[in-house]
Design goal:
Number of helices: 3
Shape: rod-shaped
CATH architecture of the largest domain: Orthogonal Bundle
Bound molecules: zinc ion
Structural class: alpha+beta
Order of helices and strands: HHHEEEEEEEEEEEEE
Largest sheet: 8 strands, antiparallel
CATH class of the largest domain: Mainly Alpha
């Protein structure tokens, strides 16, 4: 007789067997439910993980594009400031040559006037002198020019020569003197004309250089505004992607529901250093505009240890766009209001934990660095309540 009931000898045995059977069914049913639930969760988890990876990849790609563009703009701006300096110098030069030209023009016109005056005096003197001689030698057909300017000129007799020398010598001297002065002034005038022509050429050269520089300046202005637009677009894209990433993070947080609260007591300051930037509105060091600072910055030398602010589970460890190498720790739901708390550590030089790791308060998780959008080595530290940023100083006592 081999029935399952062969051992039943009492009511107790029956209850025992039935109980075992019932328990097995219950366990099998429960296992099925749990497996289905886990399958559901893991597929949801896998999908959002996949999406998050895609978004993060895109953010990283954009960030990779922004950095060299900012560098490029910096270089273009430096070149621009040099151009502006050069233009200023050229303008000063141009102003100086214009001033010179003006004074040369003035000198030239004065010289011209002086030449005209001496010419006039010379002509007048010669005229009156000629008249006088004509009066003396009324009967002769004297050539005035011969008397005045020909050294070989010789008067017919000694008496006459003596007379002319005596009476007219002073006049002749004066005429010659005026003539010499006129020649000298004429030369000076010619020199000034030369000088003026040289300055005009120089002026032209400087003016054309100024025009060339201005053309370059305009091209550079266009180039810089073009770069600025490109950077702006990438920034906008990244903002949108960051928002998306936050949504995905929240989905993951929901998917990895954990009723436990890993955190204990106060949160610790995650790195030794001074707080270089507080939580709240501030001027962004790279983008130069007022934006919300979603955490605190703790300045510390590269390679300083970053520690978990409290115990929890690592739910992200990797590169996250402008945040660079970063870690996200989930601390569970705090009993007081059932809100989930997580902490975020960015710009690390190296990460020492991976996703899924359980960490205790004070455990080493990464090293200080300047990856992502960072002007120098520091830790950007955030505390999130249900995925929304909060002032970390409210947690660190
Ligand atoms: Zn920061």
């Amino acid at each position: 007789m081999s029935t399952p009931f062969k051992h039943i000898k009492s009511r107790n045995d029956l209850v025992d067997i039935l109980g075992k059977h019932y328990t097995t069914v219950m366990i099998k049913k429960s296992l099925l439910v749990i497996t289905l639930f886990l399958l559901f969760c893991s597929s949801m988890f896998a999908d959002s993980q996949e999406d998050l990876k895609k978004v993060e990849k895109k953010i990283q790609q954009n960030s990779d594009k922004i950095k060299p563009k900012i560098q490029e703009r910096k270089r273009a701006e430096a070149y621009m400031s040099n151009l502006k300096k050069e233009i200023k110098q050229t303008e000063i030069k141009l102003k100086n040559t214009k001033k010179k030209l003006k004074s040369v023009h003035k000198e030239e016109s004065e010289a011209k006037k002086a030449v005209e005056e001496t010419s006039m005096i010379f002509l007048n003197l010669r005229e009156s002198f000629s008249n006088r001689i004509r009066q003396i030698y009324m009967s002769t057909q004297l050539n005035i020019t011969d008397i005045l300017f020909d050294d070989s000129f010789w008067l017919p007799n000694e008496e006459d020569q003596y007379f002319i020398e005596k009476v007219l010598n002073e006049d002749l001297k004066l005429i010659h003197k005026i003539k010499q002065k006129n020649i000298q002034l004429q030369n000076e005038k010619e020199l000034l004309q030369q000088k003026r022509d040289e300055i005009i050429i120089l002026n032209k050269d400087i003016a054309s250089k100024e025009a060339r520089l201005n053309k370059k300046k305009n091209a550079q202005t266009m180039y810089i505004s073009n770069l600025t637009n490109q950077i702006k677009n990438l920034e906008l894209q990244n903002k949108e992607l960051e928002r998306l990433s936050k949504e995905l993070t929240n989905i993951i947080l929901r998917a990895s529901k954990d009723d436990g609260y890993f955190a204990t007591g106060d949160y610790v300051k995650p790195v030794k250093g001074w707080i270089s930037s507080k939580y709240g509105m501030r001027m962004h060091p790279i983008f130069k505009r007022r934006i919300m600072h979603t955490g605190i910055d703790i300045a510390a030398p590269k390679g300083y240890k970053i520690r978990a602010a409290n115990s929890g589970k690592v739910i992200f460890s990797g590169t996250k766009g402008g945040y660079g190498k970063s870690v996200l720790i989930y601390h569970g739901k705090r009993p007081s209001d059932n809100k989930s708390i997580s902490s975020f550590y960015a710009h690390a030089s190296r990460l020492v934990v991976k996703k899924g790791d359980i960490v205790r308060k004070g455990d080493e998780i990464a090293y200080v660095g300047a990856t992502g959008y960072a002007t120098g080595p520091h830790l950007h530290f955030e505390v999130k309540i249900d995925g929304n940023h909060a002032d970390p100083m409210l947690f660190i006592k």
